[in-house]
Known about the structure:
The chain has about 210 residues and is an all-alpha fold.
Amino acid sequence: MKGLFKNCWTIPNLLTVIRIIIVPIFAYFFWKGEYIWAVSFLFISGLSDFLDGKIARRFNQVSDLGKVLDPIADKLTQIVLAVMLFFKFRGCDNKTLVTFSWIFLVFLIKEAIMIVGGGALLAMNLHPSPAQLFGKVATFAFYSVMILLVAFSPEFGAFREIWTINDILLIVLVALSALLTVIAFLGYLPGTIKQFIMRKNPETKAKKKVGENK
Length: 214
């Protein structure tokens, strides 16, 4: 815990904290039907997610605290969005959207598995694998699609009077985001399995360390 807060006062960590704070603010405005405010805060959240990683790598401000806070912010955002959109779609008059509402459960199931799995790994003194390329792509796609939904959905989009997403296009976009989420989840498995193998076979771990020292 002591080392966790070493060099933690950075702009990327501040942006991540802001992203966490935005989650309940977005939920409040979305629940109240203030969709322009909701999509505005969601856009700020997505922008901060994009900037914190860029700034951390560009100015060498990567920290252990940031590695913990960033996935927490991602998970909170995705869980809240998936839950609220699931219930919003369930309450729509459009039968297509009602039928399609189950797709948001894919995001919830993935996050539930990762939270439980991550907790189990930490309990065994193992570390969850870091985000892979597909994880970053999936997060970007998720934010982009959710912003489009809140902005232009047929029944509750903030700017639906300007333009409305066609039902088929909406389904395709959300399904594509869900598919990328599943692919990203599968990308964590090789690293996780490798840690289990190394834990069961200490000799393999020792050989790896010898190889790294050469």
